[in-house]
Amino acid sequence: MASGSFSPRIEVRADSSVLFNSSNNQSGRTMFHFLCCRPNRKSPIGLGIYGDGLSPRFGRIRATGKESDKNGDQSHVDALQATIEKSKKVLAAQRNLLRQIDERRKMVSSFKESFMNPESAGESFYKQDEDRLTNVEPASADAGGFTEPHTVSSSYELSTGDGEPETGKSYMSESYHGRWNGSEELLPRSVQMDEQTPVFAHTPQASTIDSVKLEAVNESTLQEINHVEGNSSVNDIIAQLEEPISVLSNAPTVEPVDVNESSSQVSNDVEGVSNALDSKPPPLAGANVMNIILVSAECAPWSKTGGLGDVAGSLPKALARRGHRVMVVAPRYGEYAEAQHSGVRKIYKADGQDIEVTYFQAYIDGVDFVFIDCPWFRHFGTNIYGGNRMDILKRMVLFCKAAVEVPWYVPCGGVCYGDGNLAFIANDWHTALLPVYLKAYYRDNGLMQFTRSVLVIHNIAHQGRGPVEDFRYVDLPGHYIDLFKFYDPVGGEHFNIFAAGLKAADRVVTVSHGYSWELKTPEGGWGLHIIINENDWKLRGIVNGVDTQEWDPRHDLHLKSDGYMNYSLETFCSGKPQCKAALQRELGLPERPEVPLIGFIGRLDNQKGVDLIAEAIPWMVEQDVQLVMLGTGRQDLEEMLKNFEGQYRDKVRGWVGFCVKTAHRITAGADILLMPSRFEPCGLNQLYAMMYGTIPVVHAVGGLRDTVQPFNPFNESGFGWTFDAAEASKLIHALGNCLWTYREFKESWEGLQRRGMEQDLSWDHAAELYEEVLVAAKYQW
Ligand SMILES: Nc1ncnc2c1ncn2[C@@H]1O[C@H](COP(=O)(O)OP(=O)(O)O[C@H]2O[C@H](CO)[C@@H](O)[C@H](O)[C@H]2O)[C@@H](O)[C@H]1O
């Protein structure tokens, strides 16, 4: 074999396909030719290397027909060495990509097999094909050959509940008869398509949906694979690439090339390829990438009454960072500047009326935010759960009906999400109807077969309870009443939306490990412990994270004015006292650096243990402390706050209202944060506090126990103080120790602050765990 001469040409093709030649041509060149696809991209990204003489021995690299050491141009040698190093990296990346191609090829073989013999395909078929469906958007109406969504075959079978199948009758509850005649009528509602709307979605007939999707999958996949197979076996190429250097060093000689031109060309090409690879790294989620739609009654910063809004605004961003395509669906309670009208209009039946909804959307931080607009939601921004029980129920029925169809009708970035490889994340009772609708309207009818639902429990105390007759408002087939009907000693037999959601969801998550355990007890489950125990296999606790764009003392926007300042782990010793002084000034409290400033932020209700603080206040004011409480909720507790402020003007501030800026400033300016919650599924304020160097004193329950490791003075570990029963005396005991440490053990105090601030409390880890749950749901059949 002739000595190696180097003239690799690397090209990124305009169509993004990958070309890598590996065949011996007449001139004796070794050519690699293969196709690379980057995962989770519709179009493959291409690399082409015509490798014919890349040698690790630079002296053998030919320039203009002479050996490079002869021309003495060391700089060229260096440049080539650098190029070779880069080439190695590219080859390593290619090898990785080839492995993925191989996996895809296997997957497609499985598809083929399944088409030939669908019955024998079994579960593995479904498992494998969902990966392919990830990137299959709903075909355009013409592509699929159907335009009318939700058309259901006129002939179907269902059980009436007495074991006798009925043919040709609607399974819908009474309110559906007349609207759905089993022919061209739409399932849960009639849909109006705005003619101007660029809607790409379709909903195929039940009988055709799977085959159409699979055809679409197969066509594109087979093209890719044929490209690979038509040239060289992927495994062969991989085998050759196992030792890229030896392969290349043994390559035959090629015509002399101008090293200047060649090396710079190679350098540029490799650079281009490297950049292409670097700028779009493979998703962290790898092959698990999914389409995810989080559905929530509130979403910060647009709407928020508490922690649910925070989670809906931040978890999706962390999931998007892992490479998933993520959407949040929330009601549009007001004018949101960022969100544009999508042009899509639909009509849904709710409370016996045809209600038109429209969709607004924004793309922020990698997430599609879709807001459902309708007169029923408008102006409820400050009173999201306002109105009577029936008002809220009707709003949530409408919201869930519209939300479950968003993946079909709302084109985000021009393309709808579609229903393949899709998972919904519903939150609390307000959206617990979504898993039920998904099942009753679609999956029971052979639609949305690849869509899954996960229900997150943020607070089981609110369940959407009512009399059994409320069932008629949710528009479901009669036999679905069994999911909702629930008996407990407190409510007797009643209608319970959370119960139905827990049963219908594919998986259930709650927001801490501690709470997942408590939910199984009669006290913690608020009656639903029976259902939770029955469904224990699908329950998982995942502690919430912190949205570090919003809550980080280094960048917090609310600390940029009025004497506050941003601070970090390096500067908190000066930054925090400055924020404390600014807070004291803003609240009109005496500006005293030495006095411990205690904060409380939260809903004023039984859960948050405000009454325990009330009991402890006479003791507290004797301790020479300052106390600021921010909250809104129960009228009597709001009054109580105001009274305390009136009584102890120089020590206590009771701020009644909902003010995000003040919440941030208290978190930064206070020394101690009190959270005597009776129960706390996770709790976010203690997490924020620790990030800001503020020491939490908490009732060790639910997520508080999970996240606040008690201070141990013997080995200087822990983050705060905990007490083991929701009693004022216990609170006083823990707070007493905390104050003592604050006053007498400055170093320990600083250590507590530092350890809290050093934690990584971001959403990234939690998002990874959510991903595990979503993947488990996806493969559950
Ligand atoms: N008056 C006020 N003004 C400004 N901001 C205010 C405020 N009152 C509360 N907030 C803010 O609302 C959020 C409340 O978070 P929590 O975790 O305490 O929530 P909540 O009990 O509502 O949520 C439920 O869901 C969350 C999320 O899963 C769980 O952490 C929690 O345990 C569970 O009870 C925090 O961002 C807090 O700063």
From TrEMBL:
Catalytic activity, EC: 2.4.1.21
GO cellular component: a single term: chloroplast
Single GO term (MF): alpha-1,4-glucan glucosyltransferase (ADP-glucose donor) activity
Domain Starch synthase catalytic: 291-533
Top-rank EC class of the record's enzyme: transferase
Keywords, comma-separated and alphabetical: Amyloplast, Chloroplast, Glycosyltransferase, Plastid, Starch biosynthesis, Transferase, Transit peptide
Catalytic activity, reaction form: [(1->4)-alpha-D-glucosyl](n) + ADP-alpha-D-glucose = [(1->4)-alpha-D-glucosyl](n+1) + ADP + H(+)
GO biological process: amylopectin biosynthetic process; starch biosynthetic process
Pathway field: Glycan biosynthesis; starch biosynthesis
Primary localisation category: plastid
Region (Disordered): 139-176
Protein localization: Plastid, Amyloplast; Plastid, Chloroplast
InterPro entries per the UniProt record, alphabetical: GS/SS, Starch_synth_cat_dom
Family affiliation: Belongs to the glycosyltransferase 1 family. Bacterial/plant glycogen synthase subfamily.
PANTHER family, alphabetized: GRANULE-BOUND STARCH SYNTHASE 1, CHLOROPLASTIC/AMYLOPLASTIC, STARCH SYNTHASE 2, CHLOROPLASTIC_AMYLOPLASTIC
Protein's UniProt name: starch synthase
Origin organism lineage: Eukaryota, Viridiplantae, Streptophyta, Embryophyta, Tracheophyta
